[in-house]
Design brief:
This protein is α+β, with helices and mostly antiparallel strands and 386 residues long. 34% of the residues lie in helices and 25% in strands. Helix 3 runs antiparallel to helix 4 and helix 6 packs across helix 7.
Length: 386
């Protein structure tokens, strides 16, 4: 199962000039629909439509085979369909094939052009919607990088001790440590140990362990601004806070044993915890747009916005999530030609706009129609300068 990360999206952004097929389908993790192979049927249906379109475009059989072959192989992989999340994204060209299992409930959709359709994935490149989860236990520690839609493990095996014994050099199971709260107010945690040294010794051992973890993470997180959520038992979080030197440690703990439940459960719980912070930048940009709406600092017409993107003027784009604008944009004369619908000789102008703004370091937010700053338009732009 492949999970999406920033480098994957940048790789998708770099591929253009050849025939590219993008397919998105909803999937289900379990239940009768999985047994009935509904997920597989969704992909099979989309591939059939893609092949039909390629034939109508008079694409050679050899090219069609190179594109559809890996997808058909995936359809026939029974084991693959037993391990799904909420959505599947497939990207294929003659010389490229990549799939991503994602916690996003896509609508079934396909796109054929000379570039991949990354609009549903653009939040992955917004640093303001990216965060880390440190799943912290005394016997295991794992770091994940996540966004609103994705989660993937960060390789830190050679940087941090994986369990307490590796750091403090004793058999933790034999010298078992238990904790309990002294009173209902939870003002103080009492450490109960067995053997010499008592609770203070055990507390010091755990603190040294957490400091070693923090030191190892420093090489990964230095210069990063993404918040770090710690998923651990309540009694361990104060100790880790004392050991931590990362400036963007999230103040609230994700309580409980992080090994209970699967990866997507962990992601869902973390997302609920951090949702207010993730929306902060989006809300700030929306407020700025509303403040300057119908002035030279904002735009709602795609024919005005695309030239502004080319000039590097756009700070933030708000794109209607389940809609699109079709046509052509000519960089030479900065003219836009609009079409009523998708056809063989046009492309998604919203996809093009998103790719360009992201490559310039701007923000792109996918938004439901009712939540667009200016609901009269499918695309809103906040400019860096007028």
């Amino acid at each position: 199962m492949s999970l999406l990360n920033k480098s994957d999206i940048k790789n998708l952004l770099s591929i253009h000039g050849e025939l590219c097929v993008s397919i998105f389908i909803p999937t289900e993790r379990a239940g009768q629909n999985v047994l009935n192979e509904k997920n597989k049927i969704h992909l099979k249906s989309q591939l059939k439509e893609v092949e039909k379109g390629l034939v109508n475009q008079r694409t050679s059989k050899d090219v069609i085979s190179k594109i559809s072959g890996p997808i058909q192989k995936l359809i026939d992989d029974t084991n693959f369909w037993r391990h799904q999340s909420d959505g599947l994204a497939v990207f294929a060209s003659e010389n490229f094939f990549k799939i991503f299992t994602l916690p996003v409930n896509f609508e079934a959709y396909h796109y054929v052009s000379n570039e991949f359709y990354i609009k549903p994935l653009v939040p992955m490149l917004n640093d303001d919607e990216r965060f880390y989860i440190l799943a912290l236990q005394l016997q295991e520690v794992t770091l994940y990088e996540a966004t609103r839609y994705t989660i993937g493990e960060v390789e830190v095996e050679d940087l941090i001790p994986s369990r307490l014994e590796e750091r403090v050099g004793f058999d933790y199971k034999e010298k078992h440590l238990s904790f309990r709260s002294q009173n209902s107010g939870g003002e103080k945690t009492i450490f109960h140990g067995h053997g010499g040294g008592g609770g203070d010794e055990r507390k010091d051992e755990i603190t040294r362990y957490f400091r070693a973890i923090d030191k190892g993470l420093e090489s990964v997180l230095t210069g990063d601004k993404a918040p770090l959520i710690v998923a651990t038992q309540d009694y361990l979080f104060p100790l880790y806070k004392d050991a931590n030197n990362y400036n963007n440690l999230y103040e609230e703990v994700l309580p409980g044993n992080p090994s209970e439940g699967d990866l997507f459960d962990l992601h869902e719980k973390a997302l609920r915890l951090i949702e207010p912070l993730l929306r902060k930048k989006r809300n700030e940009k929306a407020e700025a747009f509303n403040k300057h709406n119908k002035t030279e600092k904002t735009g709602t017409s795609i024919t005005d916005i695309l030239p502004s993107i080319q000039q590097g003027k756009v700070d933030t784009l708000f794109l209607e999530n389940r809609n699109d604008i079709w046509g052509h944009y000519n960089k030479n004369n900065m003219k836009t030609i609009l079409h009523d619908k998708q056809q063989a000789d046009n492309y998604s102008l919203m996809n093009w706009a998103a790719k360009e703004v992201l490559s310039q370091g701007g923000h792109v937010f996918l938004t439901q129609k009712a939540q667009m700053p200016d609901t009269s338009s499918k695309v809103n732009a906040l400019y860096r300068f007028s």
